[in-house]
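Problem 12. The chain below contains 154 residues. Write out its predicted structure in token notation.
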Amino acid sequence: MAAALGTESAVTTAAATGDEDGDEDGGEGGGEGHRGYKRFPPRITLTPHSRDLLALLSILPDGLSDVELNQSDFPINNIHGCKIALLRTALAYIDDHKRLKVLVPVREYMGRHFPPTDQMMRPLLTHFRQLLELFNTTSREREHPPKQFTEWAS
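Solution.
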């Protein structure tokens, strides 16, 4: 019982002081790992790029489909292995539309403590820019269809 109270007290103290790892120094994990990676499960630390994928998913409320993962130019080695690591640790899930997503509490934590790096963001921004260009091109074609199409439609 005393051990349980001691643990609860440490958790309460950590929460009150903002020291999430409970080491009372205000640091990120006592110096183990870059950016406090000791907070992640071992399966994630053994697949380092899975943290990067999790960081990207944390800024995408609708997640990513397998097609988007395959077509992405993310600098992530073994992206499908990273996906599996996230699924097996329950840090990510597949929704009804077969999209890889992260629950809101995980997204908020990652956004606050481990946001995606610029190196990870560039390919994502490029992908969305290309989608917008495709949409704009398609929209213009609908507004001003080629002459052959208007002749065929009439």
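Discussion. Confidence is low (pLDDT under 50) at residues 1-34. Students who got a different answer should revisit the alignment rule from Section 12.3.
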